[in-house]
What does this fold into?
Amino acid sequence: MLEFGDRVVVSGSERAQFLEFARVAARQAGEAILPCFRRPLEIDNKLGGAGFDPVTEGDRAAETTLRRLIQARYPAHGILGEEFGLKPGNGLTWVIDPIDGTRAFMSGMVHWGLLLGLFDGQEPIVGVMYQPFTRELWAGDGSHAWFQRGTDTPVAIRTRSTGSLDMATLGTTNPKLIPTTAGRAAYDQLEARVRLARYGGDCYVYAMVAMGFMDLGLDGGLQAYDVMGLIPIVKGAGGVFTNWAGGSACMGGDVLASGNAVLHQCALDVLKPGVQV
Amino acid sequence: MLEFGDRVVVSGSERAQFLEFARVAARQAGEAILPCFRRPLEIDNKLGGAGFDPVTEGDRAAETTLRRLIQARYPAHGILGEEFGLKPGNGLTWVIDPIDGTRAFMSGMVHWGLLLGLFDGQEPIVGVMYQPFTRELWAGDGSHAWFQRGTDTPVAIRTRSTGSLDMATLGTTNPKLIPTTAGRAAYDQLEARVRLARYGGDCYVYAMVAMGFMDLGLDGGLQAYDVMGLIPIVKGAGGVFTNWAGGSACMGGDVLASGNAVLHQCALDVLKPGVQV
It folds into this structure.
């Protein structure tokens, strides 16, 4: 398991180099996924039949590609991936979700993506989301964020300033995935307060919060690799990304992303009865 | 309102011409939508504040384009569109949903598309779904169906043969949109029986049933324009598309699409207590 540790100090130019590496690596790994999309796949079941958690060849191909690229360029860095676990390193750790939204992927849908973040011991300092089918790439360093399609020039993205729940659009993958009864009840309270709730998003929800087309993104029971790549994008676009208690979201759990701090506090207040203690 | 009437007899070559026209027209109308996607939009609210039903400029631009193209090529045909109502015709009626999945569209998401079907008085005989952002086009004539991306050669698509609910993947936009309590309860029964349920699909769910990546597509409270373009695709790919009572789905309501007749009957049996009488 990845754990919090001393923060590794990184200069601005190093951070920029890490982000550029992440963009290039994510695109290259995405190419390894694409031949598997909408094709018959070899399905494993990690939970031994107790659940449905498909592991695709695309997942493994992409993570293998990323591990190879990271090892070649930054051999001292650690790597945590969904498929192949943790390789300890010097305090900087690349965190990989080769296909976030595996169930969407398996169903032929488009709302999935590759996530790659770099954790400095305290927080992810650069993050990338890439969807190879649509060739959409989001990137952020916690201060700025960009969107780029194909070979288009990257454009800066900003969150929206929606300041009240009754004007807000909320996205979540599926409320039933929130692990506790209290959490689902709190979610229902929040959904009742917002203007529009959309299901079925996975990583796209957070990309849309960063781009200012949604105001709130919420999921329950996440892992570190589900969020590390997304947090620097949302924060870089001007948003807020915490767990439901208002603390760090970078190890996953029940998380909330918002376009701005005012709306974030409104949503946290509603979610409070659902916080796991 | 569009009503059932005498079936207009159409030859095979006429049908093929209608389908080719529909492909070309859908692509051209899709281009009219694209400049509006992920841009600030002028939002109307059809329900006068009682609900949230955004009408976008993209919607209007696409429907206007389609009406102009149909009027020029087939001036005797009728036209029914979501935005501009019914123009009566000679018994053949083009049915337009310029953006199916308006809420997804407004949220910046990808699961939306333009739908165009041709109703012969009894059923839609050709149908097209086009997503201009991904350049994906699905087309069907009730006997065959094809998928095409961009300028790629169209490939024939087939539904999946999954024969039992416990192996099936189900897609729906949002169970809360099913209009009756009994309908939602019946849906919950069905969801409990399937292997995997995915939310947030709109027209993409039915495209994925046709392509064999989902087994069941279900929605409640639909309009004719929500389904006319999709039915010839699903049926053309080997699937079944009815309302929950097993009758014609082409006027909308609570609908079910399945990859095959065996699975369809299994699902209808579970949904039976939710049928509106």
The domain at 12-156 of chain A is CATH 3.30.540.10 (Fructose-1,6-Bisphosphatase; Chain A, domain 1). The longest strand of chain A covers residues 93-100. Residues 12-33 of chain A form the longest helix (22 residues). The two ends of chain A are 21 Å apart (CA to CA).
